Amino acid sequence: MIRLQGLSLVFGEQTIFNNITQLIQEDEKIGLVGPNGAGKSTLLKAIAGQQKLTGGHVQITSGMRVAYLPQEVVLQSQYSIFDETMLAYGELGQWHVRARELERAGQMDCDEYATLQSDLAAHDYGSKASQARKVLVGLGFEQERHEMPVSTLSVGWQMRVVLTKLLLQDADMYLFDEPTNHLDLQAREWLCRFLRQSRSGYLLISHDRYVLDQVCEKTFVLGKGKLRIYDGNYSYYRRAYDEQVAHFRAAKEAQDRDIAQRKQTIERFKAKASKAKMAKSMEKQLDRMERVEFDEEMVPEIGLPFPPLERAGEVVLRVENLSKSFGEKLIFKDASFEVARGERIAIVAPNGAGKTTLLSCLYGAHKPDAGTFSFGHNVATAVFEQEQVAALNQNATVLEEVENGACKTMRGQVRRVLGALLFSGDSVHKKIRVLSGGERNRVALAKLLVQQVNMLILDEPTNHLDLLAQQVLTEGLASYQGTVIFVSHDRDVVSKVATAIISLDQGKVSYYPGTYESFCFMREQQAAAQSAAQRSNKGVAQAAAPVKAKAQTDLPADPRKALQAIEREIAKLDEAVKKAVMVLGDYEYGTAEYDRALDKYDRLREQLDEQQKLWEEVYAASVA
Ligand SMILES: Nc1ncnc2c1ncn2[C@@H]1O[C@H](COP(=O)(O)OP(=O)(O)OP(=O)(O)O)[C@@H](O)[C@H]1O
Ligand SMILES: [Mg+2]
């Protein structure tokens, strides 16, 4: 059990914790949410014993193992990815590393090696090593990469190594500070599954609603120094919160009316000498009356203001036969595409395929090996990426830093932009060096939005942003009149912002006009068609006659129409499954409603699988 006892913390004028007392049980799966800068990271640090407090203390039951993943980590290691990961097992890891050293030196017939081998075997080495590989693969390290030195990894990938090591420790309680930030969709899904099945409890900070809904059964909301507790996942909290807001608003309105009436009476009474005393006492009573107060979360009234656009040519970017490899590894080859004015293009690719590399070739951070690209007439670009966040001037204030880069027309609007990005009042005078992760990202974004440009190049713009800031940015981008080309791991952002998709798969770059949904659908269809074709080929080769016979009996009169009908059915079911997942998030785990919703989800999922199988069969039959 973890006991937070009267935690208080003040930074300058900002109260981060105002006498917080709370118990956390070992097996609780808790999401910790709150706006950027609320103090979430600071709370985890305090529990991990790495943050001095102004008052109060944290008590952890003795023997309870707590593991902490900070928001930003730097991993210094001379080992390979696999060896570094094995070090998570303490002594066993040390033996493993030593045994490998001896192997590399060819000293396998010494006594030490024999002892190591028997020690390793006695401590379940085989299954531990395979568990380590499993987690590595789950988090996106393909087996071939396990021997690469950790030192060659980018910060984002180093994070994954740290996360892997943490998961292998099998702690009682994990403190995760935005663990999914550097993960792509696949790795995110994997982690969610892992956490759901895990016996460990955790306190997990995330700004990703999907992740929170999937893995948390309880929600802590940190804001204005206080911790509010909700007994359900993120969606549950939002609903409960909205209800509370509605309730308090109504209560406040009623109270305001009451106060106005009392004031009128007081004024009336004051005018009469006989009732002046009464008026006085009523006034006192009114002053003492407890006011209904409720802090609504700060919601910006304005959307993001963009600078007026200078019109660019029809084609804003032309890429021809662009190729890039890193050593042996081909990232992309002969990429050719055009971007038209006003398009918003998402680059989509599986794990580690090189989305950022493709994007960064366009703004000069990488040099392509071959091919050319050129921006169109009158195109002015601005770039957002993590390096720029790192390059902010640590000693400037938020306001200074953004004003410095503003174009003439936007100079007067800097505060508006900062306000839209949720920097309110005095917070614009904070120095960059004390900002939280999300606050820094927002400053870098603000800098980008006050430049006189008409094309934005963005790499993971919503990383670290709280849900409100994400919403502001997503909505802003979706209504932006200029051109955008971007990479994001957040499917919500991709599906709301993108008007076209560039996919990167095994070195091949393709352009799909249309939204992310239509792109996904098209790809599923292609995959299904492919596997059907493969199956039918195999079938024909192995047993030509029976397959043919079956196909003939099953084949509908008009296979093309039948396929279309099934596709429509699949699309419907797909929607229904998505909805069912959302509904699932509304119920508390373990309740009857939850079980019913789960049943429904399972049934829909089955139907969807059946329809997909059917589609493949009809397709196979129609081409046989
Ligand atoms: N040394 C310091 N002096 C003054 N203010 C500080 C200092 N360290 C942190 N802060 C402020 O404390 C607040 C809480 O920071 P913290 O990193 O805990 O936020 P967070 O909730 O994790 O935010 P995010 O979602 O952006 O990661 C921030 O507003 C930050 O600017
Ligand atoms: Mg933080």
Quick overview:
The protein is built from 21 helices and 18 strands. Strand 17 and strand 18 form a beta hairpin.
Which keywords apply here?
624 residues; 21 helices; binds adenosine-5'-triphosphate; Rossmann fold; 5 domains; binds magnesium ion; alpha/beta; 19% strand; six-stranded mixed beta sheet
Describe the structure.
The structure is a single chain. The protein is an alpha/beta fold. It folds into five domains: about 1-65 and about 175-230, Rossmann fold (3-Layer(aba) Sandwich), CATH 3.40.50.300; about 65-170, Rossmann fold (3-Layer(aba) Sandwich); about 235-290; about 315-515, Rossmann fold (3-Layer(aba) Sandwich); about 520-624. It is built from 21 helices and 18 strands. The protein has helices at about 40-45, 80-85, 90-105, 110-120, 125-140, 155-170, 185-195, 210-215, 235-270, 275-290, 355-360, 385-390, 400-405, 410, 415-420, 435-450, 465-480, 490-495, 515-555, 560-585, 590-624; strands spanning about 1-10, 15-25, 30-35, 55-60, 65-70, 175, 200-205, 220-225, 225-230, 315-325, 330-340, 345-350, 370-375, 380-385, 455-460, 485, 500-505, 510-515. The strands form four sheets. A six-stranded mixed β-sheet has the order 5-6-7-3-8-9, sandwiched between helices. The longest helix has about 40 residues, at about 515-555. The chain is globular and about 105 Å long. The N and C termini lie far apart (about 65 Å). Residues about 540-555 have low confidence and may be disordered. Magnesium ion binds near residues 41, 71, 177 and 436.
